[in-house]
Amino acid sequence: xxxxxxxxKILFIIPSLSAGGAEKVxxxxxxxxxxxxxxxxxxxxxxxxDNAYDxxxxxxxxxxxxxxxxxxxxxxxxxxxxxxxxVLSSLSHLNAIMGYVSYFNPKTIFIGRQTIVQSAQxxxxxxxxxxxxxxxxxxxxxxKGLDKLISQSSDMKNDLVQNQGVNDEKVVTINNPVSQNFxxxxxxxxxxxxxxxxxxxxxxxKKGHIRILNILSKFKSPFNYTIIGDGQExxxxxxxxxxxxxxxxxxxIPFTDKVNIYLTNxxxxxxxxxVEGFPNALIESISVGTPAIVFNAPGGxxxxxxxxxxxxxxxxxxxxxxxxxxxxxxxKDYAPIKVSAEVRRKYSSTQILxxxxxxFESLITNNS
Length: 368
What we know:
Elements (H helix, E strand, L loop, with lengths): L7 E7 L6 H12 L5 E7 L14 E4 L9 H11 L3 E5 L1 H11 L6 E5 L4 H4 L7 H16 L3 E4 L2 H9 L8 E3 L21 E6 L8 H8 L6 E6 L5 H10 L6 E4 L5 H6 L3 E4 L8 H9 L3 E4 L5 H4 L6 E4 L2 H13 L6 H11 L2 H18 L2
Helix pairs in contact: 2-3, 3-5, 7-12, 10-13
């Protein structure tokens, strides 16, 4: 039985609003879900000072807690007092916590939004042996309490069902949206003596910046490579760039709210990731008409990339270098409107919002 309310209340819960794909999508959803159908509130476990996104269009509550693990009781009290129809959380550790909260709130529907292909993530966690088994069991019990899991790609859904023991009927796939701020550019940027390459994302090992640098060290034409993002791998990236004599060709930008402008002014987007969820920056680059070269890795890349149309999906560094040469030598063949067409059709914000709204309404109806 759902709570008897005159409006359908949705709580969107996120660990923080620091720069990141999950944070961007959750803040977007909380502010753009139909206000005629839903009353929304955004709950941030962390602190307002860490905000990287404008959330002026949604009521926001900060728990001012540095740890998701220690936020169980505040979250339990909040959900009990708010009595929402639906709670949507994002990021796997928070989803597990909300699964435990659900056991004390049987009238509320709990949905977890998965952000990574979990089994492919294991090479980057550092957890082994008994601790890994205990950790996985704790996650399993938490996830059991969720009513639905949202996967961002077919890869992610298959991993949840085949490797994480989640019932197929419990998983629904909803891709990430392309924000309306990312308009198709009018033309391919002038070369002006050097090609402009770009990568956007946290500086972590799994994002594969290191192999991009190795590839660019062999690129013979003049170029500038813009890296937008910050993270624990920054020192290693800078050290390798120096070793490869690339320092004067790289521009580092820790954070900017003008990503759309940088993508628009670039010739090629470079993605070195070993695993993804459903990469926002990649679909944003393609949506403005900037083609991409992407390593074939778990996380929806095979759903996004159309070889020869919006860039290339590659299997190794040699193939990456070959396709980069093909694109820069044939830029005129990558008209922005052609590059962006399929991504804009499949992942428009209007379409993705409608999928979330339909999911919420159907679950609430079935729970009444």
